[in-house]
Structures are given as structure tokens and as C-alpha cells.
Amino acid sequence: MSKLQTSVVTALLAFGAVSLVFAYTQTPIVSSSDSALQSAAQTVPLVVSSSAESAPVSNESPMAPQTSQAQPAQAYAQEASAAEAAPASVSRGLIYLDPGHQRKGNAQQEPVSPDSKETKAKVTGGTRGVATGKPEYVLNLEVSLLLKEALIARGFEVQMTREDHDVDISNAERAEMANAVNAQLAVRIHADGNDSPKAKGYSVLYPDAGVRATRSIQPASRMAAESILEALKAGTDAASRGMVARSDLSGFNWSKVPVVLIELGFMTNPAEDKQLSVPEYQQQLADAIADGIDTYMKNKEN
Ligand SMILES: [Zn+2]
Questions:
Q1: How far is the CA of 137 from the centre of ligand 1 (A)?
Q2: 20 to 30 A from 213, CA-CA: which of 48, 69, 81, 83?
Q3: Distance 123 CA to ligand 1 centre (A)
Q4: What is the 86 CA–ligand 1 centroid distance (Å)?
């Protein structure tokens, strides 16, 4: 064979090997995510369209396989990021973000927990900035999108309940979305309101130990809340209001994966309301929360 023929054959062989690696590594990822969705679909009539995007495939830039078959997930992640495919499909773990509320609340009722007859509004309108006039649902999404990027930069996969204000997703449904893909952690982003304009500071909420429905996820949720609170203390100068156990939140009680809720600060405090919309401060909050999640995920593995 000529030199040219030889290199063409070599290239074809290399491409074939890479294709095999793709075929090998994709199969378990796609099928596990599909089956998780199917089982969820049996319990909730809910369309989780975003997860269909969890395995973007691009094999346009074949690379020599670098990783042994013992770590197919990592091999795929490396190739996916090298190809600059949209969100990494396999990563350090899947974090589900829920930017609280939406443009229009939904006052229809839903059970506050799977084993309760008590009901609450499906989703409320949230609070509003006294100085900025900004609705809470807008602030929640702004910070959530920064948090999404911060988590992706740390090697996590991120899915979100919404990236739009014009949705109608109840708090129970938001929990079920994270359940459906068996997220490692669900993180709900909210901002606080109070009758007193003096109330200020962030807090991290987690499921109360006395709630039967969330007993299995309570210790891990508490651990995540602790890590996030510590990271907020380290990463911001804002006042900490500490951790708060809650038994009354549908978004907690329907969750089957560890879940926390971060109250970023008080939109009813004029100074804090303005601060919460400063881009640098939003980035500080997002980075701190991402650090806290990072610490939690590391501790969980050990
Ligand atoms: Zn809220």
C-alpha cells in the first residue's frame, strides 16, 4: 500500500474503534435514564421533556479512546466535553434546580404530602422586591441560571424545572421531576418576604425529621443544607439566618431525592432587595451555593 492508503486505513480503523466506544458507553446511560422516566410516568402524568436532552450525541470529532472500559461513563463525559456538546450527560452527578414560583400562581389545591389529606395551593406567586419591584420568580430564575453554569463548571449535570416564567408546574410536580430522573440533589431557589422591612439574610431549609414521607431522604438533605449554609457564610458577607427544618412544604414532602431550599434574602428589605439584583452579588450567591453542593457531593461519596 502507498503511504496515503496506509493512513486512510489507519484513520478508518481509529474511527471504527471510537464508534465502538460510543456505542458501548451510550447504551447504559440512555437506557437507565429512559427507564427512570418511564417508571415516573406511571406515577405522575407529567412530561419531563428536558431530560430527553440528557444524552446529546456528537461523534464528529473522533478522538483516540483514552480510558479503559472499566470507566465507560468517564470516557463518554470526556468525549462529550471535548466535542463541546451541550450539557455533559455523565458527570459528577445530576443536580436538579427549581427556580421557585412562576409568572402566574395556581391556586388549585394539591395534597401537601403523598400520605396527607391536607392540601395547599399548587404554586403561589411569591414575594416582590419593595425597592426593585422585581417579582420573586424573576430573581429566582436569574440566580438559578448562574447556579446552573457554576455547577456545570464544577463537572455536574444540571436539569431545571423551568427556564421560563410562563409555566404551570405545581410544587409537587417539581419534586416529581427530580424524582423521575433520580437526581442526586434537588435545590429549590427562593427569596424571602416579611412584614418587617428590617428582616434580612439568607437561610437554608430542609425537610423536618418528623415527616414520615421524607424520612429516608432527611439525613442527606440536612447534610446538604449544612454544606450550603457553610459555603454561603464563607462566600458572602450577608447575614445568615441558619438552617430551618420544615414539615409543611409540598416541594419537600413529595421529594424522593435529597432536597433543600435556599432563601436567598429578603425582597421586603429595601437594601437587601437591591443587593439581590446586583450581578456580582448574584454570582457570589451562585458560586457559594455551588461550592456547598460540591462539598456535599464529595462528602457523600466518602
Ligand atoms: Zn418563594
A1: 8
A2: 48
A3: 9
A4: 30
**Segments in 156-247 forming alpha helices (H):** 171-180, 218-235
pLDDT at residue 301, rounded to an integer: 78
Strand residue runs (E) in 226-267: 240-246, 259-266
Give buried/exposed letters for 189-206 (b at 16+ CB in 10 A, else e). bbbbbeeeeebbbbbbbb
Residue 192 alpha carbon to ligand 1 centre in Å: 6
Alpha-carbon gap, residue 252 to 262, rounded angstroms: 12
**Ligand 1 centroid distance, CA of 263 (Å):** 8
All domains in the chain, ordered by first residue: 94-301 (3.40.630.40)
Find the 12 Cα to ligand 1 centroid distance in Å: 56
Burial class, 68, CB count within 10 angstroms (exposed 0-12 / middle 13-18 / buried 19+): exposed
Alpha carbon of 126 to ligand 1 centroid (Å) = 5
**Cα–Cα distance, 264 to 284 (Å, whole number):** 11
How does pLDDT run across 61-113, given as a tens digit for each residue?
334 344 444 444 444 444 444 445 555 455 899 999 999 999 999 999 999 99
Residue showing cell 431549609: 205
The pTM (predicted TM-score) of the whole model is 0.72
Q: Cα of 191 to ligand 1 centre, how many Å? A: 5
